[in-house]
Structures are given as C-alpha cells and as structure tokens.
Amino acid sequence: MKKFFKGKKKFLLVATLMMVLLTGCSVPRDQKTGKTYINSIITIKEETVQKKNVSFEPGSKEEKQYKDLKPEDTITIPKTTWKDALEESWFNGLIVYPISQLINFVAGFSDGGVGIIVATILIQLIIFLFSIKSQVASQRMQALQPEMQKIQAKYAGRTDDRAKMMQAQEMQALYSKYKINPFGTILVTFIQFPVILGMYQATMRAYSVVTGSFIGIDLTKSPIEGLGDSFWYIVIFGLMIIFQLLSFKIPQWLQERRNKKNHVKEKKYAQPDKKANGMMGSMNMMMYMSTAMIAVFAINWPLAMSFYWLVGSVVRVGQNFVVHKYFMKD
User: What's the pLDDT tens digit per position in 119-137?
Assistant: First the structure.
C-alpha cells in the first residue's frame, strides 16, 4: 500500500487540488436560459442591465423583486467589492473576482472581447514566468527521444522485474544527465487548472462580457447557440481548436528543425510499429484527447471561453518560439 501511494502521490495531489477548487466554485449561469444570474454579475462600479439579459435564481429575493418588470426594463446592479466576492467563496474572492475586474477595467476603454484578450495575455505571461523551467524541460524531453527509444528498444519484450528496474534506472540516469524532472510539466497543470476555472467563471460573471460583445458578436452565447446568427461563432471555435493543437505540436516541429540544422540523424532504435507506444506516442495521444475534451466543453460554453482559449493558445505558440530560441542550447 505504501508503494502504491508513493508511486501515485503526484496523481493524488492533482486530484486533491481539483476537488478543493471545485468545492470553491459556484454556478453563476442558468442552465435552462444560458443567462447569468443577476446576483452573480461582477461590476467595477454601479451599472444597469436589462431584465431580458439576465436570469434569477428560483425563489431568490431578486426573482420576487423584479418579477413585474418588463424584459426591456433596466435593473441597477451595485458595485461588487472584493469583500462581497470573498464572502461568497474563497475561490471567487482570490481568483474569479480579480480576473473579472481586470476584464471590466480594460473593457471600459474598449469592449468585452478586448478585455478578455488583454486579461488572457497578462495571465499567460504570469504563468509563463512561473513555469519557464517546466516548459524548457518539456522541450528537452522531446530532444531526448532518440536516447529514450534506444533504452526502450534495449528492454523490448522483457517483462521480468529485473528488466523493468534496470530500464527505470537507465531512464532516470538519462533524466539526471540532462537535468530534467520528468514530472516538471505537472507544474504547468497546477498553475493553469485554477486559472482555467477562474477564467471560465469570469467570462460569465464580468459585467462587460454579460452586457457586451466583440465586433458585434455576443460573447455570452455558445458556438451552438450563435451558429444561426453569425459564422464568426464557428470561425472562433475552429481557430481555437487549430491553435490548441499547434501549441502542442510546435515544440515537436521546432525540435525536428533543430536536429536538421545541427545534422542530428535519428537512429531507428525502436521498431516503427512500436514507436507509437513510446513517450512521443503517449504525448500525442494526450494532446488529441485533451483537445477533444476542450472542444466538447467549449461547444456548449459561452463563446467568451473559446475566445480565451484561442488567445491563450496563440500566446503559447509564441512562448514556444521564445523558449526554443533563447532557452534551448544547440
């Protein structure tokens, strides 16, 4: 049992973090109408909103207070303070509220879409600064593929405990030689997961997004809902998927280009039919699965979330070029 928990401690740590974060989340959107609850909207100052653009939690005082208003009538929303958000939950106070107010602040000079763009770029920059070592390690892992394949081919077909132990030792020695922590990329997941949840909530709760748009596109509608209104909904959704894949594939392509530039010939240590079962095959499988999961969620989420993922993916593509040029040694 001790051995099991030792080997699974990183997975358990990630699972625990996810559970803690999810317990701090609330549901700010009416699942039937797709509109944000009026008492969930985060504002930077006192604002007004038309009744038809918001929803009310069943049995709430807001539902009773405004039941006689016409859809075009306006409702005044008081300024949201940090104390208000923190009293709702620690997650809203520490993550959702700052992101929402950042979007609102920038949108005050433009619109909700620009607010999301600026907020996403700043957030991705912060994540990049905290996870630069992990991203460098991730690209180095790809550079080690030939040596890793050699070790895998050496022990191919051997299932005894001694062979498994020796293979693990040689792999660990390879990581130590190049100063790589194979679990270092988990740091990026730790940082990004709460941000993704926070951004998801912020795109539904920020006043500038709930009542605003981007080049005439309603950011509160999902790609499915907006399909009949404008082709831009599918364009943004499609570009999000494309750049999400590119953000995964660019490091592989850059490494292949570096190997070609340095005249590094990759030896076929492993059989082609087994190569896909190696680490690169696993990485590709995770890439496609994660992108598919994001697509499934995003097709029914507010377009603002797809917009966030699109901008974030474009930024990560740029970060890959920066890491490759300035942090990877030939």
Answer: 999 988 888 887 777 766 6
Is residue 20 a part of any domain in this protein?
no
Query: Does a structural domain hold residue 14?
Result: no
The residue range of the domain holding 258 is 28-326
**CA nearest to 120, candidates 202, 212, 218, 239:** 202
| Domain contains 5 | no
On the CB side of 95, how many CA atoms lie within 13 Å of its CA? 20
pLDDT digits (tens, 9 = 90+) for 143-165: 676 777 788 788 887 878 888 88
Please state, as a whole number, how many other Cβ atoms lie within 10 Å of the Cβ of residue 303.
Answer: 29
* Residues 243-300: tens digit of each pLDDT: 988 888 887 777 777 767 666 555 554 444 444 455 556 666 777 788 888 888 888 8
pTM for this entry: 0.74
Name the domain count of the chain: 1
304: which 2 tokens?
């603002």
CB 175 within 8 A of CB 10: no
